[in-house]
Every structure is written in C-alpha cells, then in structure tokens.
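AAA family ATPase
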Amino acid sequence: MLLIGLQATGKSSFFQRRFADTHVRLNLDMLRTRHREGVFLGACLDTGQPFVVDNTNPTREERQRYIAGARAARFRVAGYLFESRIDDALRRNAARERQVPERGLRGTSARLQLPTLDEGFDTLSFVRLVEATGEFDVSEWRDEV
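Predicted structure tokens:
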C-alpha cells in the first residue's frame, strides 16, 4: 500500500489506525536513508510480508520504485491519496511537535501528481481527515479530487 499526500495530512495516523497490526511501515522519517528503506522493502517483497509505504510519494516516478517491485512480487497494490490542501497542511504542521519546514511542504505540494490506475495500482482511494472527530473518510477513487 502506498500513502500519497502532503506532510501533515494524516498519513501516519491513518497507518496506525488501519494497518499497524498487519503491515510493516516503511517510512523515510524513521529509516533515514533510501538504502535502509530498500533493505526493508526487499525483505517484505522476498517474504511476502504486507507493507505500507508511509512517505509523501508525490510523483508517478517516485511511486514506481515501490509499485514495480510489488507487482513483480505479485502483491496487490493499493494507493491512498490524502486530501492535500496546502493551507490545512501548513496549519496542522505548525501544531506538530516535529515540524516540516514550510519550504519543504510547499515543495511537495508543487510536485504532487494525482495517481492513476495505469501506474500499476489495483485500487485507489481518496482519504480526508475529518478534523472535528479525528476520523478518516475514505471514498472510492473517481480520477479527481
């Protein structure tokens, strides 16, 4: 599974609530280097261990590094695009203990490309954080936001 969206849109919280008991979390914030991430990814692919890529994954090219390997290892690939309004993400980021520099958030926003099924996804969903309740609204993908 690939989580896609700006920083501070709820991706890590979504992982914790939905997949922490069943999937390995691959995340550059935690692993720090692409080499380490690749080692963990390779172990998941080699053993059939379900995993979630909890990075921003903003571009088609960046997503391919995970999709190609997962497809070759016969995984089903699900994508979750998180509602990524820059003003909302900046506000939530300001309230975080560990903040992403504004420049980084805006840079991710500028590069964000909507995912498409033809990238190799089996399913795509749109996820919106409902701030009033802290819950997530997950809807079927409609090739639009």
